[in-house]
Design goal:
single chain; binds zinc ion; alpha+beta; three-stranded antiparallel beta sheet; 126 residues; 3 helices; 7 strands
Length: 126
């Protein structure tokens, strides 16, 4: 069972580490890394250098394609709700207390654990 995928770094094969050197004499080559799991860039890059190689090569195209920010965005009261939790050992038996905090008005509203974990649950206007 092989579920290996290649690092997407455009220059991965040019970094001359021993683990990239593959094949048998006289046909040895440095090759793009191939792994079952990678940590960087949403699991597409073998290391941070390869991730930034990709970013540096494609960032302008990406920004042109998906649209650049050309004016300030605003976080308003209507979408400033942030999920938080705290530990209150004296009052709540060491259980985490989940709550929403409005980072502008500082208002707090209680949350259940299920609401906290539900990535679709929000008080913020979309
Ligand atoms: Zn790589």
């Amino acid at each position: 069972m092989s579920n290996l995928k290649y690092c997407q770094g455009p220059d991965c094969h040019t970094y001359t580490t021993q683990d990239r050197l593959k094949g048998t004499k006289p046909n040895k080559t440095y090759q793009t890394r191939r792994r079952s799991s990678m940590y960087y860039g949403n699991h597409n890059f073998c290391d941070q250098k390869c991730l930034y190689d990709w970013v540096n090569k494609y960032i302008e195209q990406g920004l042109d394609h998906f649209g650049r920010t050309t004016e300030a965005k605003h976080l308003t009261e209507d979408n400033a709700w942030d999920k938080r939790y705290r530990w209150d050992y004296e009052r709540h038996n060491g259980e985490a207390q989940h709550y929403y905090l409005n980072t502008i008005t500082r208002e707090q509203r209680p949350l259940t654990k299920a609401q906290y974990d539900d990535t679709n649950y929000t008080l913020n206007e979309r």
